[in-house]
Design brief:
The protein is mainly α. The chain folds into two domains: about 120 residues, Cytochrome c-like domain (Cytochrome Bc1 Complex, Chain D, domain 2, Orthogonal Bundle), CATH 1.10.760; about 120 residues, Orthogonal Bundle (Cytochrome Bc1 Complex, Chain D, domain 2), CATH 1.10.760.10. It has a three-stranded antiparallel beta sheet, with no helix packed on it. A two-stranded antiparallel ribbon has the order 4-5. A hairpin with a 4-residue loop joins strand 4 and strand 5. Helix 2 crosses helix 5, helix 4 packs across helix 5 and helix 7 crosses helix 8.
């Protein structure tokens, strides 16, 4: 099992990903208004908040539903895409399940292609981007900003974090965003590696919501990674429980 000091990638990524620049509050406020504006959709029935509403005051900004276009479909439906949380968006390096290089491209694609709305202006895209990037992560008392367990983290969380590195999870889910720009075909479709921050709030899991529990998702990813490196392996129940404990702490 790698020692904690043998993890230079964490520091490297921290240096590569800039801290979010404080946006003008007026621009954020405009973005919040636009986020809830049904005039951005062709039918004037939908807004960004339709699929990404604040959840019970927690500002999770996801229905946790799976969609084809604007239609909610059963989880696991072929071609469906789950609505990701917008928490901690300032961390991300690529956007959407397709892995677009900028948040503005992703926002435009949602408005024009999915919502069938008019072409957004540069000001609208800037405002929506500022608002989305202003959404902070929920409190994580047992891990720090790089995903390292705090001194008072439960033992399962500490074991899970060690396993996260030794089992290869961090190969794709690298700190501090716990994501990467890689595209992988895990279950028959190519999608971007998502961020794992706030993952406990985003079930059901995977791009199409096919897994009802984190345990199922973790088992699938364990097998995928070990098959990919040609070292087939089956995790123990304890390993799965520890990894889930760590993920739930994020």
């Amino acid at each position: 099992m790698p020692a904690r000091h043998a993890r230079p990638i964490c520091l490297a990524v921290l240096l590569l990903v800039p801290l979010p620049v404080a946006a003008d509050q007026a621009l954020i406020d405009l973005g919040r208004t636009l986020f809830n504006d049904v005039d951005l959709s062709g039918s004037r029935e939908y807004s960004c908040a339709t699929c990404h509403p604040p959840a019970l005051g927690l500002e999770a900004h996801t229905t946790n539903n799976t969609y084809i276009g604007l239609d909610s479909v059963p989880h696991g439906t072929e071609g469906g895409r789950s609505a990701p949380t917008l928490w901690g968006a300032h961390h991300r390096t690529q956007w959407g399940w397709a892995g677009l290089p900028t948040i503005e491209q992703n926002i435009r694609g949602i408005i024009v292609n999915r919502m069938q709305g008019p072409e957004p202006s540069e000001e609208q895209l800037a405002a929506l981007s500022a608002y989305i990037k202003s959404l902070s992560l929920p409190e994580t008392p047992y891990v720090d900003a790089a995903g390292e367990p705090t001194a008072d983290a439960p033992e399962a969380v500490q074991r899970g974090e060690e396993l996260f590195w030794s089992a290869g999870c961090a190969t794709c889910h690298t700190p501090p965003a716990l994501e990467s720009t890689a595209i992988h075909d895990v279950v028959g479709v190519e999608v971007k590696v998502p961020s794992l921050w706030a993952v406990r709030h985003t079930g059901p899991w995977f791009h199409d919501g096919r897994y009802a529990t984190l345990e199922e998702a973790v088992r699938t990813m364990w097998r995928f990674h070990h098959d990919r490196i040609r070292q087939p392996s089956e995790p123990t129940d304890q390993q799965i429980a520890d990894l889930v404990a760590y993920l739930e702490a994020l």
